[in-house]
Amino acid sequence: MAEHPRATAALERRFWANARLRDAHLPQGAPTSPAISNLAAWRLDRRLSALASGFGATMTRYADDLAFSGDKTFEASVRFFVARVGAIAIDEGFGVNHRKTRVMRQGQRQTLCGVVVNDTANLPRRERDRIRATLFNVARFGLDSQNRDGLPDFRRHLEGRVAWAIALNPSVGKRLRDLLGMSSG
Description:
The chain is mostly helical.
């Protein structure tokens, strides 16, 4: 009796996943991940911070995302600066994803890690509108009507999204929290 092709593919994926787990490894997303990331990038951070300072700019790193900000003088030399960042990263054993490298000027929307960071940290407008629409619909049609993904505790999920909004922009977040309060769900 021949096995079904999907069953064979599933067994093969499971085999390779188990093979990878046999070797010593660090789990992604563990509570220790930020500390390990900071240790691994310590020399990189020092060198890139010094480079940025020399160009009159500042550097910020969140996990493996780097951001550099500066004034018009910095902007004039940004192409050379980006090349130097790449060289330092490679020298320190890191790679650069050039498809994700962007220069965001003052007059355009600047986002890092899904957060708009132009003047202050804020939710992207699309995300803020999505949360607001969900909360309005929860108030009108009930909590279950908006739980399209079948999350086990949808109210807690919404509370978490509102808490994220509050952390980024307290005034916007408070309005969302007030909407969440209206919906007794």
